Amino acid sequence: MMVVVKEDRDDEQASVAASVVNRLAARFLDGLLFVPITLVLNEASGAGPDGSDNGAWPLTSVILSFVSFMYEAVLTWRFGQTLGKRLLGIRVRDVADDRPPTLVRSVARVAVVTGLPTSLVGIWLSAGAGTLLNLAWGLVLAGSVLLRPDGRGFHDLAARTRVVVA
């Protein structure tokens, strides 16, 4: 016997796409969570206050990238939202069944969001080049969200998801 649990919201609200502003603000809030982690990693790696990293840049970047990747993939899979999205009242849903995406789709979505290949190349180039590559990819993703009437960016299309008002 299958039990269907209906949430206390109407179907019309379920299909309201989250605004680009809320999506970017949620990403910013999630990014703020990683400031203390970054400070701890810098301290542990011996990064100096003058910006010198004693050659630890690639290792700390890989660790930080892995932690942030897992944060977003796991929370999106388990709850349909990161802490930033929860604070702003938005969530990620599978387009087929309006549930949080599967783990595979969450990982695919985050891989596109983070521009995984771009990030890995940037880590080995330098801090500045990695930052510029990630910024450029972020602008491409924001543009992809803005240009589609349904507000689904490349990452949503790749994972067959959408971001909606919770």
Architecture overview:
The chain is mainly alpha-helical and 166 residues long. It has one domain (14-44, 52-165). It is 64% helix and 6% strand. The chain contains eight helices and two strands, in the order ααααβααααβ. Helix 3 (57-79) packs antiparallel against helix 6. The longest helix has 26 residues, at 20-45. It is globular and about 50 Å long. Mean pLDDT is 81; it is low at 1-10.
Please describe the structure with a list of short key phrases separated by commas or semicolons.
globular; mainly alpha; disordered N terminus; 166 residues; 8 helices; two-stranded antiparallel ribbon
Specify Rg, calculated over alpha carbons: 17 Å
Helix content, binned percent: 55-70%
Summed over residues and divided by their number, the pLDDT gives a mean of 81
SS elements, strand count: 2
Going across the biggest sheet, name each strand in turn: 1-2
Derived from helix and strand composition plus strand pairing, the structural class reads mainly alpha
Counting DSSP H or I runs of 4 or more residues, the number of helices is 8
Question: Brief description of this entry?
Answer:
This protein is mainly alpha-helical and 166 residues long. It has 8 helices and 2 strands.
Please specify the SSE layout and strand pairing:
Layout: H1 11-14, H2 20-45, H3 57-79, H4 83-88, E1 90-94, H5 103-113, H6 116-125, H7 127-147, H8 154-159, E2 161-165
Antiparallel strand pairs: 1-2
Helix pairs in contact: 2-3, 3-5, 3-6, 6-7
